[in-house]
Task: structure prediction
Amino acid sequence: MARNRGVDRRWSSSAAAANKCMPTDRRPEPRSAGSRTTRRIPLDWDEDRNFRILAIDGGGIRGIFPAAVLAGLEERYLGGRSIAGYFDLIAGTSTGGIIALGLAAGLTAADLRQLYLERGNEIFPPYGPGLVGRIGRRLNAWRRFLRYSYDHEALARVLREHLGDLKLGAARARLCIPSFEGVHGEVYIFKTPHHPDYHKDLHEPMVKVALATSAAPTYYRPLRDAGYTFVDGGVWANNPVMIALTEALTSFSVERAQLQILSIGCGDNPYSVTGGKIARGGIWHWRDIINGAMRLQSQNALGQACLLIGPERLIRIDLPKKIPKIELDNWRSAVAHLRAPAAAAVASAGDRIASMFLTEPAAPYVMLENIPNRTIQ
Result:
């Protein structure tokens, strides 16, 4: 698997551990400080060229599915070349953000698929098959009511091995990676410097951005860095399709008819208001409402995107409903059940995807020259 060697000392193992545990007295300005008070000036975009977007949902270890779909497209239509070069903007949340960052760092989707399959058990250690495994998972679920289930260090170690010391400014594709900032209670979107307004994230390590977007509540401790506290972007934008669409329309002189979107989900489960929610209410019976909120956010984002650009210009790929429920940390079940649906999705929708997105590469993304302090360490 292709890897970027080298480790930023700031995000070495000891630094990551200290970041996790040590409080900070410095309270930085909120992300919104200094925001524009006038409409952003869009950059020119060729009126004869479509603007192609890849948006990848969050979903923990179920990220095997979008990684496998993209890898299948690479193998079937691109001769194994990276699919990243065929999109003008990539947005990803949580596990989708990790995939987006990996693609922008030069990894192929096939590399990322193997990372999930071969190293996912280090990030989410399996409990074993059969009754013992089911009991272990049940106990872990109960433990999450009181404490985090996993240490960030396992994920950070794998990320460091593959992203090294690369900064967001060195990305090979335009990126939007959402997180939630808990000190000021604001949304926080990490962006590559693809517009003159964007320079705050130029030197952010890709490893940090990946950890910030994937700090899932109850699974991981929030990531604390430079006075900020980051929580998984899935709490407000598990499906980042509208983030990407808004970014394209406000940063570039593109018309809605020029936009094309490939949106890939990680599966979700129907959310119904039944039983104790209706009869008794209370926090206990509504404890899983975050799952409903995330699912509805995704539905709403997709609906808005279709209204804005037309459903014929958006392709949505997601797990079929018949797939058994897979928890975000169940590596064993994800490996067993997600590769076949990914292959089926490529077989059924691949030709349409290829005709819309893969006929010719996107124009190479080059970081803007007029960004302040642009040198990448």
